[in-house]
Predict the structure.
Amino acid sequence: MAHNSAPTTASPTIGASIVAKGLTKVYGRGSDAFHALGPIDLDIKPGEFVSLIGPSGCGKSTTMLMVSGLEPITDGVVEVDGKPLTRPISEIGIVFQDHLLLDFRTAISNVMLQQEIRRLPRAEMKERAQALFAQLGLQGAEEKYPWQLSGGMRQRVSIARALVHDPSMLIMDEPFGALDAISRTQIRHDLEMLWLEKRKTVLFITHSIEEAVGLSDRVLVMSKSPGRIVEEIAIDLPRPRPAHLGEYPEFSVYAKRIYTIFEKLGIYKF
Amino acid sequence: MTATSNLRKAAEPALWLIGLLVVWELVVRLTGTPKYILPAPSIFLWTMIENAPQLAYQGALTTRLILYGFFAGAVPGVALGYLIARFRICQQLLYPIVVFIQGLPKITLAPLMLVWFGFADFPKILLTALITFFPVMVDSVAGFRSIDPRKYYLAKCTGASWLQTFFKIELPSAAPNIFSGLRISIVVAVTVVIVVEWLNSKNGLGYLVLRAMDSKDTPMIFATLVVGSLIGVALSWAVSAVERWAVPQRGPQGRH
């Protein structure tokens, strides 16, 4: 395992920039090789909220794992704040599709795992964790174990865990995929409010058009495997965005554009 | 769980046990069974009281061996379980040996241990360790293997060191399995130590049982066995207590 560098401080950071050039992933070798992704280019500015949307199996999660340094890159480079990525970076927060909370720790203690591993000041981090719990509507859930929480609350705890150490970027892999539609709308709004306050760079992976348009500054639409970015759509809607996105006539225009691309790619056949 | 229902849970089996002893007592007295065949509970309980200092002293010596053997087996059991679960090469090299030794009736190694290591405590502890090792190791392998591989992403993206990953994620994740191995091992350890004390010893409960047998002192055999059983119950209770303290409940229905 890569050696841990100097402990990350919890001082407020602005979002990092993420640049990827020719990012490619091939699993296996020779005749068994499977071309999963790319080449794709990404250029995410500090503090920007960018969504990656595409069908299942298009390499979205692979992209996320490579950008965070968790999966080796077959070809291409990833630069975070101009520095090439060579090992898992710890200056990020990741929210996985599955909450990945430790079932033997309470909600607050799952969040404080960050403090323990990074050896950050305990009292200060506890305060930050509690503030995040309040912002995410988790008051009263601090001492509950994951099995005592609903799916939506578990995912909120996992968002708190990803943010408590004040990372410069947040990578989210279909974080609301397993939630019901009602919780999804609420958690989308809560995430947006949190982002408006903190302005981290966010790379948000999803297969929901509504989430992508509802949250992002920019949506990158991916093709089927091997995934490539086929279109980039800047979302110019005022924030914070409402629960019912249909209030904006532009919303249906953006959504329509993505549906049209999916139909063209043969992802939707109507 | 309320205090009264806890009390009830403890009282019910105790009453049942007392009832059994009363029936035993009556049967022995009514049939006039001689005490060297089956002593009445009142007889061997009295023997226990008469010999309390000796039973306590020898019991303490046996308990000491049990604990040494248990720890000497459990710690390597967890460590090897971890290595086998996590590293392919360890699995390939060690597992065949482990399977072979596991198939061996290990208590039969006792004479060999005595030939090799003489008559001190060491061979007894070693044999106890060897036998308690296996349940712990097998359950540890299962525990460490059952960790969701994505938990390692979590370790990496927080920048956790190898030690942090082990103590903060892997060990607590595998703890329920490890404890089920420990609960088996502690009971086995009691038996092993007493049996090994038969073979050669001037001390311990095994020695007391053997000496009582030589003098046809059946009440003393019973008294010693009761002490052995109390030690076993106390130690398994201690393991369960440590488990309750160290491993939080993970689901709505009971443990795990």
Q: What stands out?
A: The mean pLDDT of chain A is 86. Chain A has seven helices and ten strands. The interface with chain B takes residues 1-5, 8, 65, 68-70, 88-90, 92, 94, 96, 98, 100, 102-106, 113-114, 116-118, 145, 147 of chain A (CB under 8 Å). The two ends of chain A are 49 Å apart (CA to CA).
